[in-house]
Each structure stands twice: as C-alpha cells, then as structure tokens.
Design a protein that fits this description.
Chain lengths: 359, 340
C-alpha cells in the first residue's frame, strides 16, 4: 500500500510542478469530504494541491425556502412529517423541526418507512421529506408508485431531489471558474454511470475521476486527476470499476424517469439551476405535497451571516466564515453544512480544528 | 387473604404492601440469594477488609431492553462494577433499584433480574440492597435501573491523571464500538444485526489481574458513552499532554465497521461496555499486554497509541492507515440516544 501511496504522491507533486500554480480539485460528494478528513488525507497532499468541498451533501444544498415549507407542514395537525434524521436540525427562519418539538415529526431511514407510517396512520397525511441525489430518488419513486398502485392516498412527498451533473455544470460554468477537476461521487455514479460526466469534460474541459470511499481510492483518484491536468487532458475515468459502469444502473434510471421530470430548481448557494431538480410527473402530481397543500417554494435568503452557500461552491473554506466555531457549532448549528454529518463545516469542525490548514 | 395472580407489574407492586412483599420474596430474593439481602434491613451492614473504598453509582435506561450480548440487567451490574474496576478497586457489593412502568411483564422482569444476578455472581459481587418503584403507564419506558457500587481499593495501586507522562503507552483490551453499534443496529432494524453483539462484560476480573501483575499502571478508564474518543480526550485535557492513536492498531470487527459506515458513525465515538483503556509506562506495557492476552476479556488487546509532548496545548491525533493525521475530537454527545 505504501508503494501505491508513494506513486500517487509523485504524480501529484509533478502535476503541481508542471502547472506551476495551485491546483484546485473539488470533491463533489459529502461522503468523500468526510472520508478525506477522517483519513487525514489533507495534510498528506502537496501544499499547492487544494481540495474544495462541493455541493454533494443533500441536506446542505437544500434551499432555505424548502426548509421553511417543511416547518409550515409540521405545524399542520393533519400531517405527519417523515424525514431523514439530518434534516430535523437544519434551521429555518423560525426554528427547526427539532426545536419545534412536534410529536408529528418522525425520523425514518427510507421512503419505505414513510409509506408504512402512512399505512399505519390512515387519518393523517404523511409527507415524506424527499431529499437526496440520484441515489435516493429511485427509492422515493418506488414509494410513490406503490402508494399509487395500492391506493395509499394519505401519502405524499415534498420533492427536494436533485441532480448532480447540472450542479457541476453550474459551478464551472458560472460560480467557480477556479475548479480544475472533479473527484466524482461513487454512490451517485453507480446510478447515473460514468458517462454522465461526459458534458463536463467535453464542454468545460475539466477532468473527472469517479472514485470509491476507501482512502486508497481517494488518493489514486486525486492522483489520476493530477496526471490528466499535467498532460493537459480532460477525460472521464472511473477507478471504482467494481460497481460503476459507463451506463450506470438502467433500472434505477428508468424508475426515476417514470415518476419524475427534471425542472429548474433552487440550490443553496448556487441559486436556480436549469433542469436540476426532480418534480413528480403529472400522472403522480397528487402525491406532490406542494400540489396537495397549495404551497409554493419561495426562494429565501440564507440566514444572517451564514456563508454555507459559498462553502458549497468551493469559494471559501469553512474557517473563512465568521460564524464557524463561534456562533455555529455542531451543537448549535446556524447553517446546514454544520448540521449534516456529511457537511463540509461539520467535517472541518470535527476533524480539522487545531491543525494548521493545508492550503 | 389470597391475591389474584398477575403476570404484569401493577402500581401496587411498588406500594409497599402485600404485592410488594410478594414481588420481593417470589421474584427478587431467590435470584440474589445472599445473607445480607435476605435480612431485608433498611440498610445493608458490610464488613470490608480495607479501610480505603471506592463508591459509585449509575443509572441505566437502554432501549431496547434486550440486545445481542446482554440486557439492561446485565448492563446495570457490569456498568457499575466497571466504574469501580477502573478506579483500581475490587468490587464488593451493589445496590439495585428499579423504576418500573405499570403493565410491565413480570416474566420479562424475571429475565432481567436473572441476568443481573448472573452478572453479579460472575464477578463475585453481592447485591445487598435494592428498591422497587412502579410508575403509571407512560411515565417510564418499561424499566429503568439504578445501581450503586462499593469496592475496596487494591493495595499499592495509584491511578491518576497526574502520573501520566509523555512516552506512556495506551492499551485497549479489544475491539471498539461493539456495544453502541449493536444497540443502534437493533434499533434501526439493520439486516446484519445478528452478526453484532454487545461487549457488555464485567471488567473487574481482568483489571484486578492487571493491577496485581503491574501495579505501576498509571490510569484506567472504561470508554463507555463517547467511546474511545471521549476517553482519550479526557486524558489529554486533564494531563495537558497530547495523544497519538494509531488507526492500524485499533481493533475493530468488520461487521461493526460496516454498520458504522452504513449509519454514518465514527467508531471512535461509539460506546463500549466491556472495554478498558489502560495508560502505562513503556517498560510495563508488554507485561500488561501479556496479562490481557491471557484473559478471555483481553484476547484482542493491543497498544493503540502513545502519550506525546504537547506543543500548543493538548490535542488527540489519529495517525491513519494511509499515513495521514487528523484530529480526534470530544464527541458532541447526542449521536446515540439511550444506549446504556
């Protein structure tokens, strides 16, 4: 293993030398962010290689307006809110699902659990807080289809599902031109396939490497990106071959396509991105919580002083935010990147404090 | 007058009347048969063979009440014994008090009490005092147990933060995270939960043997809530020295790692109920390891870190398997509700 690490570090060093400037690599996925910190990889990288944490944590990229709608729904006595655990602590403009102490807020591990809640509580409407990327969207779609076929009408979803590639395009096309290359998410790529990143290399000439979450995979993924940058190449490469194919999981993709259509959607920090959010198709629209309750997602300002938006674009590191470690901690989070265990701020706080920054 | 037999706990079982007496004589005393308890006095009278004693207490509210590798009864006895053990004491006697929810199955209570008795017997500790209260349905979650424990200090043993110095070795007696991940997996209904088992065990037989063989041991602590991360941070903060842990040497079961990855937990933060962290001078480390490895509770023991000079204040760092370094924080403490 040490030999492989040495080889990878040599590639990184020579790319830094050849380019003669700082190299900025974005790890898109929150699981990568945490793995990089947990394995202490940052201090092992060359000084001129900077890792930027990207918009790949579903809780973090969820727009403030969406959070405010979940709070509105939680106030309704005829609803049960079924949500993934991380979401309950994200502050809205008036508290969070957690601080409201509502007995109708239930933590679930899957959309299937939310559907079971609906079956067991026929006199309430269960609203599933459906966040996540292409990884969790198929399971939500299956739950909606099951509710449809079995006539479970007291179930609906508040879709916050998002697509990864449009966000990467928005980043390099507009928000952050400094990104040189992308370390692409392992889990999402299992579903969408490595070919999904072809637009990033063809239109934006940014190398993409799909890697798994073991430290060696991450190190070799970064090294692969460095090799491409040094060679002036921009290609899609996957070193997560065991599970990621070029085409991805066709079955999961078609389940998403059956239920959802991509529409323009709001992202924290990135604003509105064309065709980046999944909305239920017309035939399933009665399971859309916005339709059922006549609600509209209104863009909301980020909370005062919170710079999660800039963190998510790789424009600043968490310690550059004045709230970090002071007003904003995991015990008392201001922004979602400190709430989610996969958030960049939470990872910096937990694993990065007390050490000199690597960049 | 004859009472109608019941298979559930009623409020009257805690009322101090006939049903309480029945509960004590039929369900409790037979399991904890010892002369002191049998006297049913208002206080237990003990004769100890040392004037130096350790005294501790802890309450147990674990959910679920039964888990792979143990239950709330075993946990309540072992947990308090372990607090005495790591303080350098030989546990002698425990009290055991229960707060039970009305409607609780008597059969389930019997199982819990039998398990508590077995754990106490195994550690040669007597349960010499106790109490039972019953609260209305909904006022408790099944059963809560409090135990308090008394132990006599082992001779020539001096365990304190103050003796810890840079260069000292940090030893653990086996795999981390087994208890916390077992509880969490069972709560979350993860499919591979059957591969996980709590490490819940009385550490006293092991710690007494270690301290007899190596009285120079400087410090011991059981890494329960907050896991190894909390324990080493307490050591660092209390001594002012830094600590380096070696990831490659920290014993972890693959199934436990898989469960932690799935639920997004860092095993360093996860509770143990049968583990002890030992800090000792380098020249006695091998001796301590030998003693551990010769005991069933320490077969997987290893040196997992070292106390280091602190440069800008004490920090705990993990040297990762790939040669990276990262901070190990004191856990926030809200990740795992009601695990013990």
């Amino acid at each position: 293993m040490l030999n492989r690490i040495y080889e990878a570090q040599k590639l990184m060093d020579s790319a830094c030398q050849k380019l003669g400037r700082q190299i900025n690599i974005m790890e898109v996925c929150g699981t990568h962010t945490v793995a990089i910190f947990r394995n202490g990889l940052r201090p092992t990288l060359p000084e001129r290689l900077k890792m930027l944490s990207g918009p790949g944590c579903p809780v973090c990229v969820t727009d403030q307006g969406y959070i405010d709608i979940t709070l509105q729904l939680a106030d309704r006595e005829d609803c049960i809110i079924a949500t993934y655990g991380d979401m309950i602590r994200v502050p809205g403009k008036d508290g969070s699902l957690e601080t409201r102490h509502k007995p109708n807020v239930k933590i679930v591990l899957s959309s299937e659990d939310a559907l079971t809640l609906a079956k067991n509580n026929p006199d309430k409407t269960v609203v599933f807080i459906a966040v996540g990327f292409e990884t969790t969207a198929p399971a939500t779609a299956v739950a909606v289809q099951e509710a449809d076929s079995r006539g479970i009408e007291n179930f609906c979803i508040l879709s916050g599902h998002k697509l990864v590639v449009p966000a990467m395009e928005a980043l390099v096309g507009d928000k952050n031109h400094k990104i040189d290359a992308f370390l692409c998410p392992g889990h999402v790529s299992v579903i969408i396939g490595s070919n999904a990143y072809i637009p990033i290399v063809e239109q934006f000439a940014r190398p993409c490497v799909v890697a798994g979450f073991e430290p060696m995979q991450i190190i070799e993924g970064i090294a692969g990106l460095c090799r491409q940058l040094a060679d002036g190449a921009a290609e899609v490469e996957s070193i997560y071959d065991a599970v990621v194919t070029p085409e991805g999981n066709r079955t999961a993709q078609s389940i998403i396509d059956e239920c959802f259509e991509p529409v323009d959607g709001l992202w924290r920090g990135l604003g509105s991105i064309p065709n980046s959010t999944l909305k239920l198709k017309a035939e399933y629209s009665r399971f859309d919580a916005l339709n059922r309750f006549g609600l509209k997602e209104i863009p909301a300002e980020d909370l005062s002083g919170c710079r999660c938006g800039e963190v998510l674009c790789g424009l600043i590191d968490p310690p550059d935010c004045a709230l970090f470690e002071k007003k904003c901690t995991p015990d008392s989070p201001v922004g979602p990147c400190m709430v989610s265990s996969e958030g960049a701020c939470s990872a910096w706080y937990k694993y990065g404090r007390g050490r000199k920054r690597s960049s | 007058m004859k009472d109608t037999p019941t298979n559930k706990i009623l409020l009257a079982h805690g009322g101090g009347g006939r049903l309480t007496a029945n509960l004590i004589s039929n369900n409790i005393l037979p399991k904890f048969s010892n002369e002191i308890l049998a006297q049913l006095a208002d206080a237990a009278s003990l004769e100890l063979d040392s004037p130096a004693v350790c005294f501790t207490t802890d309450s147990y509210v674990v959910k679920p009440l039964f888990f792979n590798g143990g239950d709330i009864g075993k946990l309540a006895v072992c947990g308090t014994i372990n607090d005495l053990a790591v303080a350098g004491a030989k546990p002698v006697a425990l009290s055991l008090s229960m707060i039970i929810e009305e409607g609780f199955e008597l059969g389930v209570l019997d199982k819990i009490l039998a398990s508590a008795a077995e754990a106490a017997d195994g550690a040669e500790v007597s349960i010499v005092a106790g109490d039972t209260k019953v609260v209305e349905t909904g006022a408790a979650d099944g059963i809560f147990i409090n135990t308090a424990g008394l132990g006599t200090k082992l001779p020539d043993v001096n365990l304190s933060f103050g003796r810890i110095a840079p260069g000292d070795k940090i030893i653990i007696n086996g795999t981390i995270g087994d208890h916390g991940m077992t509880i969490m997996s069972q709560r979350e209904g993860i499919k591979f939960e059957s591969q996980l088992a709590s490490d819940c065990a009385s550490l006293a037989p092991l710690t007494c043997r270690i301290l007899e063989a190596a009285p120079g041991v400087k410090f011991m602590r059981d890494p329960t809530r907050g896991g190894l991360a909390a324990t080493v941070n307490e050591i660092a903060n209390s001594t002012g020295h830094s600590i380096e842990l070696y990831e490659k040497d920290i014993p972890i079961k693959p199934a436990v790692q898989a469960a932690a990855d799935m639920l997004g937990f860092d095993l360093l933060d996860i509770a143990n109920e049968g583990k002890v962290v030992i800090v000792t001078a380098p020249d006695t480390a091998e001796k301590v390891l030998d003693v551990c490895k010769g005991h069933p509770l320490g077969a997987g023991a290893g040196i997992i870190g070292e106390v280091a000079q602190s440069e800008d204040g004490p920090i705990v760092e993990l040297i990762t398997k790939v040669g990276g370094r990262r901070i190990v924080q004191m856990p926030y403490g809200r990740e795992l509700p009601r695990i013990c």
